[in-house]
Design a protein that fits this description.
Elements: H1 12-35, H2 37-44, E1 48-51, E2 54-57, H3 58-87, H4 90-107, H5 120-145, H6 147-150, H7 156-183, H8 197-220, H9 233-249, H10 252-281, H11 287-315, H12 317-337, H13 341-369, H14 377-406, H15 410-427
Antiparallel strand pairs: 1-2
């Protein structure tokens, strides 16, 4: 099928190119945001740290940095997406955020753990992590918006799941390589006292992986407009955003889904960002045990993305999301009372299954709810992504606040269940049309 711009939809090469962007940037979300950097940060800093004269728990500082990064993206992405739509330069913005994030990620190599204190090394680490997180979050805005442009509606569920599946596989491959370097540095020519060098090399490889494989996606996604860039387009960015907002306000069903998505995303994204810190601090897990948890999460997330795509195709996206949100709520309740590492492994397995499913099916569901014939998909997806980033900030702030007050992270995890319950209640009022995939249509 060819859309009104002459670009062929449902093309396998384009679909795989799009999915490869998830392969590229998921290395950041796994290694930096989830697996290695949080544990490294907790290891090289004291239980209480001081940044610019403000003292707090190191876990609180980490949570606040995540929150600030996503607030930054939430603030600027609506205007940028409006400019991208009105100028036809969506891929250019995607390139910019990818380059920013990957270079900032590489800068973490210099966060060496020596003389951390509250000086320039701490500032460098937090600023590099903040910019890398912002680059990751900013690029996703434009990446997601391609979905309704490259495939027709009956393929949304499966292609969205394919992106996440590519991401899980690619990120696990690089994580395993980095773990080998960290565990057996002598295999890679590092002799004697290597200190934190193997860990910091992983930050460098993630940035290179991210930037390198992203080029594969850029080469296969639809080209940007070649019309001259006019500075007047800068003012049109806000106008485009406001136009879409007016259209969203006239669609109660779309508004209800976005509100539901906002609340349950606050829970989902916070769990994903801070799971390894919880395992290390509350469950006293060693580094090797944490890696087992992370790999378990990724492998089961791969299965979950495929499984819930199948479920949504069979029974509809709404019921599939309802099942996942119920499971998320139960997981948060169990996180408050979990005792022993065996119980925690079971809880991590449950998180992994619903982690991949809820992300891929949320993106596919939103694509289905867009008004028919929508062309300015980037601006529409800016609402989706701004809400996700704002939700991540809200969840991280609430996690940091409750943790600071209670002196532990269990109450913080329990509080996240409230977000899932609110999202679930609102979702019940959303009407989502169930479009079955025709039997004679082949998967791409």
């Amino acid at each position: 099928m060819i859309d009104t711009t002459g670009f062929k939809r449902n093309d396998p090469k384009t679909i795989n190119g799009w999915a490869m962007f998830d392969w590229a940037n998921s290395a950041f979300s796994l290694t930096i945001a989830t697996a290695i950097f949080p544990s490294f940060f907790e290891y090289v800093t004291a239980g209480e740290v001081s940044l610019w004269g403000i003292s707090m728990y190191n876990t609180t500082l980490f949570s606040l940095t995540v929150a600030v990064a996503y607030l930054l993206v939430a603030f600027i992405s609506p205007i940028l997406s409006g400019i991208a739509d009105s100028s036809g330069r969506r891929k250019a913005f995607m390139r910019f955020f990818t380059t920013l994030g990957s270079l900032a990620c590489m800068s973490l190599f210099f966060f060496d753990g020596e003389n951390i204190g509250s000086g320039p090394v701490m500032t460098l680490g937090m600023f590099g992590f903040l910019l890398a997180t912002a680059g990751f979050g900013g690029s996703i805005v434009f990446y997601n918006s391609y979905l309704p442009d490259i495939v027709t509606e009956e393929h949304y569920n499966r292609v969205s799941a394919r992106g996440f599946m590519f991401g899980y596989v690619g990120s696990v491959i690089l994580l395993i390589v980095n773990l080998l370097v960290i565990t057996y540095p002598e295999w890679f020519g590092m002799r004697g006292e290597v200190g934190t060098l193997p860990v910091r090399l992983s930050f460098l490889t993630v940035g290179l992986w991210w930037l390198g494989f992203a080029q594969y996606a850029f080469a296969r996604l639809p080209k940007d407009s070649d019309k001259p860039f006019d500075l007047k387009i800068l003012s049109k960015g806000y106008q485009e955003f406001n136009k879409v907002w007016q259209q969203v306000k006239q669609s109660p069903n779309l508004k209800r889904f976005l509100l539901s998505f906002f609340f349950y995303s606050a829970g989902v994204q916070t769990v994903l960002s801070l799971a390894s810190l919880f395992a290390g601090v509350e469950m006293k897990m060693a580094a090797d045990e944490l890696i087992i948890v992370i790999l378990l999460l990724q492998i089961l997330a791969l299965v979950g993305a495929w499984l819930f795509a199948k479920l949504s195709d069979a029974v509809g996206n709404k019921l599939g999301l309802v099942v996942m949100l119920i499971l998320w709520t139960v997981v948060c309740g169990f996180g408050y009372i979990v005792e022993g590492k065996t119980q925690f492994y079971f809880m991590a397995a449950a998180v992994g299954l619903v982690m991949g499913g809820v992300q891929s099916q949320s993106r596919a569901t939103y694509s289905k709810l867009l008004p028919e014939g929508t062309k300015d998909t980037t601006s529409y997806f800016s609402f989706y992504d701004v809400l996700e980033k704002a939700a991540t900030a809200l969840g991280s702030f609430s996690f940091a606040f409750t943790g600071q007050l209670s002196g532990g992270m269990r109450v913080s995890v329990l509080a996240l269940a409230v977000f899932f319950l609110i999202g679930l209640l609102i979702l019940f009022k959303v009407k989502i049309q169930h479009i079955r995939l025709p039997k004679n249509v082949h998967n791409h």
